[in-house]
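User: Hi! I have a protein structure encoded as tokens and I'd like to know what sequence might fold into it. I'm fairly new to this, so please keep things simple.
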């Protein structure tokens, strides 16, 4: 087999009197390494075997915990001790720092070490030759902005197929769909939505259907709908749906995304599909497990072991924000491609758990006596659901926060308009305050809970909120109660207003009297300096606004009106649009100049 990775099918033959050269010793090592790595790759697989957890130390530094992985050539990668580094010292940072999203990858690396004298080599100018005495098997970390092709990293491609529905201007909608389905069974459809560097809210809907398929409710088509209620610049959401197959025999069919039903809105912009998207599905009466096994063993062996180009172990996905002076990690995701390699011990444990669940007795629901006459109950009208909005506000504590000092957020619009609004707050406690991992919400004093009962990494604080019923805004504040190294705390807030009050107030609004007003109207700032704008909607209950820049590359402004000036001097226009009254807006002007 002519293969540079696993070519060694010859081993040394030893006999008395054999003259051993460097070639013989090298071939001995190559043979043993090649056979072991071939077994690792073909019988073990690829991915993280244990450990290798990525933890953020602060908003610029991460720690890679000890662990082991097997790469796509079957080589063992061992991290023996914690590896703590700032992100900007990792290979590839400078080339990819402006991309927004970067991936931390792990790769196998060999280094020569421990110099020694060589009596047989030709001498150098000093008459003495040095050679390396050891080969150190290690690892290296690097950053890349290239998105991994997840369907090629694992064996999932034998079961599922990924079809891109929409991929333009930072918005991507992908369908992960089963390749095969049995008659009278359901095919699973995972809708993967991603947005990158988009500040406007994104909403979409479309319909799925096809011959031999219908929704689990019996409808001819399945409607997919997503509305972004909590707006963020970067987001990744996966939702699962199912279509029922009513075929009676083997067949080939398509699940179709109807282009006429596809609606995508980014802020006020609407996007369309140019043509229908078709997803081929094989309907099989035979066992799908048998089909997958046959597909695997039908693959070319050489193709499997040689297909290693641009395949790495992806440890983390970072969203970084940079300017000319510095950077910080806004959020990160651990093991974004889920490259886990389960050991036999873990697999046996999971099988035992599944078996125990299957054997657990089920309790039949108690049926009421058929002769029993149920008392008549007056049907009450369905209660109206109150208007509720939520969000997370980050309050910066600085580099050396002081116990007893109060820290405040900027005043922001809650979106429920004028009038009395109730606000509930909690500390959004996560494994690390910079992560997107789902954590705990801490209401009240965390000192009530001991470390043995629950792990709370957020500092102990008192939280307060001030609601301006005229402007429709909220300002949050915290008082630090203990020493901490955290530079910020995340406060989760909920604002709600009874729907009856909202409806009564909205009925009184006259569109002609509505006017958006930005303050300040004009301001001078330095390059890369930040300034907060506020927008008030006169004559309306809803104070929800959407911020934006009139032109590209003129700075950025977030959802709460925090403007960051560009490095280039000039006069730039900031826009604020009413969400409820789309034809109402106002402009403010920023003079960016380094001269006082």
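Assistant: Happy to help. Inverse folding works backwards from shape to sequence: for each of the 596 positions I chose a residue that suits the local structure. Here it is:
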């Amino acid at each position: 087999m002519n293969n540079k990775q696993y070519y060694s099918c010859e081993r040394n033959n030893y006999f008395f009197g054999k003259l051993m050269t460097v070639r013989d010793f090298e071939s001995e090592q190559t043979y043993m390494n090649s056979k072991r790595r071939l077994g690792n790759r073909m019988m073990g697989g690829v991915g993280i075997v244990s450990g290798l957890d990525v933890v953020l130390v602060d908003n610029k530094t991460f720690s890679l915990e000890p662990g082991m992985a097997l790469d796509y050539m079957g080589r063992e990668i061992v991290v023996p001790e914690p590896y703590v580094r700032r992100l900007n010292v990792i290979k590839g940072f400078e080339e990819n720092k402006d991309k927004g999203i970067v991936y931390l990858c792990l790769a196998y690396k060999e280094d020569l070490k421990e110099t020694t004298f060589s009596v047989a080599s030709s001498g150098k100018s000093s008459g003495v030759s040095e050679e390396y005495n050891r080969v150190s098997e290690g690892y290296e970390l690097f950053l890349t902005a290239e998105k991994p092709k997840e369907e090629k990293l694992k064996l999932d491609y034998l079961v599922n197929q990924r079809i891109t529905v929409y991929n333009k201007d930072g918005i991507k909608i992908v369908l992960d769909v089963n390749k095969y389905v049995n008659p009278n069974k359901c095919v699973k459809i995972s809708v993967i939505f991603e947005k990158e560097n988009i500040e406007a809210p994104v909403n979409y809907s479309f319909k799925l259907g096809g011959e031999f398929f219908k929704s689990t409710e019996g409808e001819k088509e399945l409607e997919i709908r997503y509305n972004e209620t909590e707006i963020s610049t970067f987001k990744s959401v996966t939702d699962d749906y199912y279509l029922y197959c009513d075929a009676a025999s083997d067949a080939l069919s398509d699940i179709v995304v109807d282009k006429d039903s596809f609606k995508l809105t980014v802020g006020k912009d609407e996007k369309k599909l140019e043509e229908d998207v078709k997803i081929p599905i094989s309907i099989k009466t035979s066992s799908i497990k048998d089909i997958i096994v046959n597909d695997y063993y039908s693959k070319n062996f050489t193709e499997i072991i040689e297909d290693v180009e641009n395949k790495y172990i992806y440890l983390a996905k970072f969203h970084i924000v940079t300017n000319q002076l510095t950077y910080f990690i806004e959020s990160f995701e651990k093991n974004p491609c889920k490259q886990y390699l389960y050991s036999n011990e873990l697999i046996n444990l999971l099988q035992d758990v599944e078996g125990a669940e299957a054997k657990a007795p089920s309790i039949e629901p108690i049926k009421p006596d058929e002769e029993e006459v149920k008392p008549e109950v007056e049907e009450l009208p369905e209660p109206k659901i109150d208007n509720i909005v939520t969000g997370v506000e980050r309050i910066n504590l600085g580099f050396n926060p002081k116990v007893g000092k109060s820290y405040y957020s900027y005043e922001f619009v809650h979106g429920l308009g004028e009038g009395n609004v109730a606000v509930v707050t909690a500390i959004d406690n996560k494994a690390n305050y910079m992560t997107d991992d789902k954590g705990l919400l801490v209401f009240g004093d965390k000192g009530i809970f001991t470390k043995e009962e629950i792990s709370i990494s957020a500092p102990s604080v008192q939280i307060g909120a001030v609601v301006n019923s005229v402007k429709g805004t909220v300002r949050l504040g915290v008082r630090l109660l203990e020493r901490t190294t955290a530079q910020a705390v995340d406060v989760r807030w909920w604002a709600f207003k009874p729907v009856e009050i909202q409806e009564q107030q909205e009925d009184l609004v006259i569109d002609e009297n509505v006017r958006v007003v930005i303050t300040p109207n004009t301001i001078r700032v330095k390059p890369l300096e930040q300034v907060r704008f506020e927008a008030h909607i006169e004559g309306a209950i809803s104070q929800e606004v959407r911020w934006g820049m009139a032109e590209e590359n003129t700075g950025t402004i977030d959802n709460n009106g925090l403007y960051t000036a560009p490095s280039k001097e000039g006069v730039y226009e900031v826009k604020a649009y009413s969400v409820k009254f789309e034809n109402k807006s106002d402009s403010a002007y920023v003079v960016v100049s380094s001269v006082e």
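A useful reference point when you look it over: Helices lie at 22-44, 93-96, 150-153, 288-298, 301-306, 344-359, 499-506. Feel free to ask if any position seems puzzling.
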